[in-house]
Batch of 2 targets.
Target 1
Amino acid sequence: MKSKYNSSQKKFNWKTILITVLIFSSTFTLLDAFLIPKAYAVVNQDQLENSTQSSLLIDEDAQIDPLKTNNSYIDNNISINIEKVDKNGVVFYVADVEISDVSFLKTAFAYDTFGKNITETTSEMAEDHDAIFAINGDYYGFRDIGLVIRNGVLYRDISGGPLGDQSLIIDSEGDLQIVDTDEISGTSLIESGILQGFTFGPVLVEEGKASAEYNTTISLKANPRTAIGQISPLHYIFIVVEGRSKTSVGMMLEQLAQEFIDRGATVAYNLDGGGSSAMVLNGILINTPAEKRNTGERNISDIIYIGY
């Protein structure tokens, strides 16, 4: 009887140990994926200044004092006007931005650190970098794949993303382009002078026409959205859509693409949305993010901003 008892106890102990290991492993995996910060690279400020140095010589004596309102900013080099639109049960904000040089279009990581689960709010990152205007980026830190080029530095070059291999790049002239990261390397993009690279998607507008690639789960429902588009050289449109609220249901991707086309965009790309969608001007949060009603702005990994 004692032998049988010991045998049963050993089996029980092994089962307990196995269950404990499995629970620990699963818990660690979840923590590693969503909570444990991992810093892979800290932004070198000297390198950043050199890579984004303006090709335009700014005459400080000729600079005018910036004119600011609740929905606009204008100086010698930067013009920003934000329109609030409320139609068909959707509230969204359209920022029309013109700059004199590509160096005023920048990006930033949370805490100036490329890594995983390193996050700040859009407002905090905008303040950290004296941004005049900012929107949330592609939340690269939530994934281990996708192209990440920021301010002329290649941080990640792993093909694939939430919606495939199509990424958005911004070249040295400030032009937005769509590339297939399965067909071109990040190194070659850097060598050709690409300054920024994002992976989220899908492509909304290309060559002035709406993309047909909307048959994805991300497009099946109306949601808060963030997207960037270009009208002409150094002339951009940023749209942030409110959603999941009584005042705004959000947008389908087809609707979002049409808003860019109606405003003359030749190319437009969908960025991270949902609770991440945020727009900041002159230090003030313009929209009401989906999560702000309960917990405030969502902490994210990166922003796109306009500033000096």
Target 2
Amino acid sequence: MGVEIRALTAEDRPRVVEITSQIWGGEDWVPDAFDAWLADDEGEAIAAVLDGRLIGFARRSWIVPGHAWFEGIRSDPAARGCGAGRAMTEHLIDGARCAGADAIHLATHVDNEASIHIIESYGFRRVATFAYVAKEIAADAEDAPIDPEIDSASADDVVRFADTSRFLSLARRRIPRGWWFAPFDLDPRAATAHLTTRIGIRDRGELVALLCLGEPAGARESVGLAFADGSPKNLRRLLVEAHRRSAGRRIEAMVPVDGDQEAALLPILKEFEYATWDDYAAAVFVYQMDLR
């Protein structure tokens, strides 16, 4: 008997934790998101089972109506080659199609060669690339002087500024939220709704620089730096304020890199010694498959 697919249940938590302890040095975010997966009755969380033993799991949810998101596709390293990844991918695609999806989106890391091979074989195409960086912000960052020229920005300000920004262009019109990447043009307000900290610098009343923080989807106690654009000087000022507001927490950022072009934010994060997995290179790939 081959790999079987069934619904993920609360009883599967210990096995999920066991599998994820072998992924990303035990820093996988899926255990933190497990309860939310099971509570989401609009999506689907699945388990791959072989000979009665759970060997993989994954989830399908929605970015906006009609656009599905696949995430957390994991297989037990000891069971690789058993077909769990392909079985889960095929099941999720069929489920998305039956649920009326127009397109499916997902993100993965450059090192996840097996998953990349599977999804590309099903017709997913790479549509955007990002560099992942992170930094633990010291608790004393809150003692930094307040810059009097930094102002708050409204949700409407964010949509207007982002729409014509180089950041969004390099991101291929996608706004990151942790390992989610929402297509801006489908619903700009929905794509930016998680950006609850919005700080900017104005010149004669007009925004000339903007930085936005939000809570990454499925992440631990961290803050997501999801958007920032402006001159290098202004980005440095905004980043100091972002550190002041995030003192004692971890900031994670997905920064768009498109070929030999990178967002203006990335060199600033290098200056501020943000850690990187891949020497600040494009290593997070966003994929899309159109169903209609």
